[in-house]
Structure formats: structure tokens, C-alpha cells
Write a structure and sequence with these properties.
- GO terms for molecular function: Hsp90 protein binding; protein-folding chaperone binding.
- InterPro entries: CS_dom, HSP20-like_chaperone, p23-like.
- Belongs to the p23/wos2 family.
- One of its GO terms (cellular component) is cytosol.
- The chain is mainly β.
- It has a domain at 2-109: Immunoglobulin-like (Sandwich), CATH 2.60.40.790.
- 3% of the residues lie in helices and 31% in strands.
């Protein structure tokens, strides 16, 4: 399966010292999952009943994690994990896995990735902070702004003009079209 990852690091705050790990496995129910989090690795096996596919991935991590402090979220499309790094360091891990060879299914999750020097300014991915934004992403209600008395405008921008076709008669022809008509 496709595996996406991103990370944060902090020498002072353990809550900001973790790995985001997402395993893309559509239509795998909670009952069909075997997930084993160990300090040195993650092993996942799951079966999709609708797609008739069995997924398996074993990852030996670059450094140790704390399985007890890590969190797992199961969705209809994937398994999302927030793996707590065991050692507090300011530096990012240079890679996710202990082995430096590239794996075709392992990719950086650029939706969650933040550069090392910008991680303190980055907002957390905690959706609970957005509250009740309603409508247009927190935009204020514009119904009371006095726009009720505004005239309807046509595509020409003139409120009295309903027809654009009458104006076309006064328009000169395009360059080169006059020469074609003369022939």
C-alpha cells in the first residue's frame, strides 16, 4: 500500500516531537486490521472485502518511537498514525526508515510536511481549533451590508442595457478578415 509520512521535532516539547504516518488502504474495516506498533517499527496487515485485496507493510524505523504515547485513527480510506518519537531532538530524522534504500510505496506527505526551520511557526493540524466557521470559511455574513437596493447588471456593466448584440454592428472587423471578404 501507499505509505505517506511527515514529521515534527522539538527538544523541549514532547507533544511536538512525532511522525505522521498514513497507510492508504481503502475499504479495510477495523475488524480486518492487524497493526503492531513497536519501539523500532510498525507492521500492518489488512484485507479489503470490497476490493478483494490483502495489504501488508512492515517498516523498520530510523529511530525509536513510544508506542504507548502514539495514536491511531482508522478512516474509510486509510490508517492515520501519530507516532511519538522517543528521543527529544531539535533535528528531523534524515529519513523514516533505518535502511537508506528507497521504497516505491513510501512518499513524503507534503500536505503535512513543514520545513525544519519553519516548524515552530506552523499551525497544528488539529481541526478542533477551527470551531464553528460556517458558510464561507469564517467570512462574515454579508446580507446586512446594504446591497439589496443595487441594480442588476448585465454582462456589459450597464444596468439599463439588456442586449449586447446591438452594439456589435458598430464594431470594426478583425485584422485580416477585411482582406478575406474582398477576395
Amino acid at each position: 500500500p501507499l505509505v505517506l509520512w511527515a514529521q515534527r521535532s522539538s527538544v523541549a516539547d514532547p507533544a511536538k516531537n512525532f511522525i505522521y504516518l498514513t497507510i492508504s488502504v481503502p475499504d479495510v474495516s477495523k475488524e480486518d486490521i492487524q497493526l503492531d506498533l513497536k519501539p523500532t517499527g510498525v507492521t500492518f496487515t489488512g484485507t479489503s472485502a470490497t476490493l478483494k485485496k490483502k495489504y501488508h507493510v512492515g517498516l523498520e524505523l530510523y529511530a525509536e518511537i513510544d508506542p504507548a504515547e502514539s495514536r491511531v485513527n482508522h478512516t474509510a480510506k486509510n490508517i492515520e498514525m501519530k507516532l511519538q518519537k522517543k528521543e527529544l531532538k531539535e533535528e528531523y530524522w534524515p529519513r523514516l526508515l533505518k535502511d537508506s534504500k528507497r521504497l516505491h510505496f513510501l512518499k513524503t506527505d507534503f500536505d503535512k510536511w513543514v520545513d525544519e526551520d519553519e516548524q515552530n511557526e506552523a499551525a497544528d493540524d488539529d481541526m478542533s481549533k477551527f470551531g464553528d466557521m460556517g458558510g464561507a470559511g469564517g467570512m462574515p455574513d454579508m446580507s446586512g451590508m446594504g446591497l439589496e437596493g443595487m441594480p442588476e447588471y448585465s454582462s456589459s456593466g450597464n444596468p439599463e442595457d439588456d442586449s449586447d448584440e446591438e452594439d456589435d454592428e458598430d464594431m470594426p472587423g478583425l485584422e485580416g478578415e477585411e482582406e478575406k471578404k474582398a477576395e
